[in-house]
Write a structure and sequence with these properties.
This protein has about 100 residues and is α+β, with helices and mostly antiparallel strands. The protein has a single domain, classed as Alpha-Beta Plaits. The protein has two helices and four strands. The protein has helices spanning about 20-35, 65-80, and strands spanning about 1-10, 40-45, 50-60, 85-95. Strands 2-3-1-4 form a four-stranded antiparallel sheet, covered by helices on one side. Strand 2 and strand 3 form a beta hairpin. The chain is elongated. The relative contact order is 0.34.
């Protein structure tokens, strides 16, 4: 069994309030959960208006499958929204 961790660093250029940030981040989290059957949370930068860090975790039979699954998440998040730009991402394998 392999556990993969994906860290997504998002830039939110059009946000001017925490409520506006929440209105962008919540649908992104919900869609990742729905489309990929993974666990997602906002892990850092909760008080910063134009920056968000999401953590995505998946469990798979092999590390190659987990890595491929998380790579698909990162690739699709990059093109989903114009108001949430993917700045950087990192995939770590745990076990």
């Amino acid at each position: 069994m392999a556990i993969g961790l994906l860290t997504l660093d998002l830039h939110l250029p059009l946000i001017d309030s925490l409520k506006g940030k929440r209105s962008v981040i919540k649908p992104v989290i919900a869609r990742i959960r729905r489309d990929f059957n993974v666990s997602v949370c906002e892990a850092d930068a909760q008080d910063e208006l134009t920056h968000a860090v999401l953590e995505v975790v998946c469990v798979s039979q092999t590390s190659a499958l987990a890595h491929r699954h998380l790579q698909q998440v990162a690739n699709l998040v990059e093109g989903w929204r114009l108001d949430a730009q993917l700045v950087d991402y990192e995939i770590e394998m745990i076990g």
